[in-house]
Amino acid sequence: MRNLTHLRIHEKGIIKGFTDEVLSVKLMEMGCLPGTEVSLELIAPFGDPIAIEVAGYQLSLRKIEASSILLEEV
Amino acid sequence: MSIKNDLKIALVGNPNSGKSTLFNLLTGLKQKTGNFPGVTVDKKSGRMKLPDGKQAELIDLPGTYSIYPKTLDEQIVQEVLLDADHDQHPDMVIVVADASNLKRNLLLFTQIRDLNMPMVLVLNMMDVAERRQLKIDLRGLSIDLGVKIIPTNSHTGAGVEVLKNVLAQPLVKSKKPFYQVKGLAEKTIEDIKSEFSLDEDYRAYQYAQQNVRLKFLPESEKERIETIKKENGFYDVPTQSQETLGRYALISDIVDRNIKQSTEGNKATLSQRIDRITTHKVFGYVIFLSLLMLIFQSIFAWAEGPMDLIEAGLAGFSDWVKGALPEGVVNDLVTDGIIAGLAGVLVFIPQIAILFGFISLLEESGYMSRAVFLMDRVMRNFGLNGKSVVPLVSGMACAIPAIMATRNIDNWKDRLITIFVTPFMSCSARLPVYTLLIALVVPDDYVFGLFNLKGLVLTALYLLGFFAAILSAWAMKFILKTKHKGYFIMELPGYKVPQWKNVGLTIFEKSKTFVVEAGKVIIAISILLWVLASYGFSDNFKNAESNVRQELPTNASEEEYNIALNAYKLEHSLAGSFGKVIEPAIEPLGYDWKIGIALITSFAAREVFVGTMSTIYSIGADEDDELTIKEKLSKEINPKTGKPMYTMALGFSLMVFYAFAMQCMSTVAVVYRETKGWKWPLIQVVYMTAVAYLSALLTYNIFS
Fold it and tell me: Residue B570 forms beta bridges with which residues?
């Protein structure tokens, strides 16, 4: 399944769901809600962590956390 | 205590919402930092006068994204708001929201609103919202959210007076909750409401969600809630996600109705362009390292002058007191015990002020979170976390504020490892020890005709500390087991021009915390050490005067006599006896009982080593500078070998010992406070002393 780590830089995607329930609560509080558009904005050197643009601001998270955010198939 | 406050107001909001700036605007210098009872979370509060003449206490609660806490700091927000008997429980709440990012900011607002407390919503950063061309219908928003809204701009201070006026008026509580939580767990909520006689559904629901975490509930009540939850099939996490989704759906409607963006902002903003450089795989690290070098340089270069002034000032004060008070025990206690201890604390203020000035600048500007972002992957290899960077760097100035700065690491294991290894970083108190020993044993040669050998040794000592920290962290990664799964979900706020007032207040507040918190311990230890060094039970100590008279030639001056007497007394004092007791243990490292005394006394703080050595080698107070100590030490002859005592082997062995040993009572005290127990500070002392001892032993044997 496609998840957030599959995005290329500046590519957009729509959040579909989460694979980790506990983490999803925190992510939703931070504005990552199903149906929200996100775009991959920054990738740290060594490929991790990454930063996404969501709900009008930038959020950084580790790759392992990003992989728990599933995206709509294109 | 002194002035009675008429009401308590709490300031709540997301991190980066400008909450602290607003707090500073409302209270100015009338702030104080303390602790919330029972926890080590800083409590920032201040007084302000309302237009109707009433005094209010404003409490700046830690920034949080929701009422569900993820860190220790956030936990306090929920405690204060949910526990009506908490002594910080407010009469009124100001929720601060970033107007340019309203949806996410309103989540916390709606949660607090449903606790049904008198409240007002401040829309801060209206300037940023305008720049993003957001048209906000304040009236419509106010009606939809059911709350009074005050727009402010904390850069210019616009809106602050209006806010004060509103706070002076009685605030109405809304009649019905924003979000009907009852639908999620009707029976559970009803049961808890009747059990605890609560009025609000959301309050009861929070009891169900957070019963384990609520400290104010006794065990029996927590269990009662647990039973109610079981009976009704209430599951925390799924219910919480439904709540969050439900709230966001309502918020989203309201925000879309009342906020219009006139043009689509699709071009890269300035922040994004800066990010491309600051997180670049080459420039990112270059910028980060340059900033570190700058901070490091400034701490040494700029702090020197003020530090000399403070030292000279206190020395003068001590002399004055010595003259003003009648000679005797009280005089000695005040000058050699208390004032000496005070000097040991105050002398660090310049370095702490500079360090926190820089840290505050980096945080204010928004750069700090980029540094964390950049370093996370690298630090993770060593069991640390991007957020460990700040404490480790701060540790080069002083471990005390550095350990205090670990609080924003939300993962307990990462935080503990950071606390554990930070004292290895070479702090400024080691510098006097290093300088003296380097001057003593390292020749003034140049390597490749370019690098000064003394400078190279100093650099090597700093690197030694750094690698000890990193390697210990790496080892701890495998030893420590935790159940907690940490995460690293962090907002990267937009870049901002730092506000000098905030920077200034941070410097002021951190320096004050250091003086008060560390000062207590340092002065106490300093008095204890004074007692150890001034009293003895042996006959030699009692007959010191006559013994010294006999030893000295008859034509010795009064001053020579006094100097010799001091040295003699120290040798036969309690501290001197301890030095002799531990001599067999430190002999393999090349040390004698004199160094033993210095090791014991410098457990208060490393730099005490220099002062103790000068007393032992009976150097008069007037010539108490490094040069004379250096001369005396270089003339010292080892009684066993007949050669100079301070060889390169001994010098290096001592330097390595001081690089690794936990010779700092204040750090021990801070670790105790931060880890809430003696377990970790004790393990740390034992571990660091063991590393220091073994490394010094190895060094001594390599060089001799």
Answer: none
If you measure CA to CA, which chain A residue comes closest to B241?
A: A25
Would you identify the CATH topology of the domain B7-168? Answer: Rossmann fold (3.40.50)
Question: Given CB atoms, is A23 within the 8 Å cutoff of chain B?
Answer: yes
What is the complex's ipTM, to 2 decimals?
Answer: 0.95
Interface check B651 vs A, CB under 8 A: no
pLDDT tier at B423 (50, 70, 90 boundaries)? very high
Determine contact: B493 vs chain A, CB below 8 A.
yes
Q: Residue B687: count other Cβ atoms within 10 Å of its Cβ.
A: 16
Out of 2.102.10.10, 3.20.20.100, 3.40.50.300, 2.30.30.90, the CATH code matching A4-71 is 2.30.30.90
Q: Where are the beta strands (DSSP E) in B428-569?
A: 446-447, 451-452, 490-492
Residue B338, judged by CB atoms within 10 A of its CB (0-12, 13-18, 19+), counts as middle
CA B659, B665, B667: angle at the middle one, nearest 5? 70
B64-73, B124-133, B259-268: least confident range = B259-268
Hey, where are the domains in chain B? 7-168, 181-261
Minimum CA–CA partner of B266 in chain A: A56
Q: Where are the alpha helices (DSSP H) in B325-411?
A: 329-332, 340-346, 349-365, 367-380, 389-394, 399-404
The answer to whether A69 touches B401, Cβ cutoff 8 Å, is no
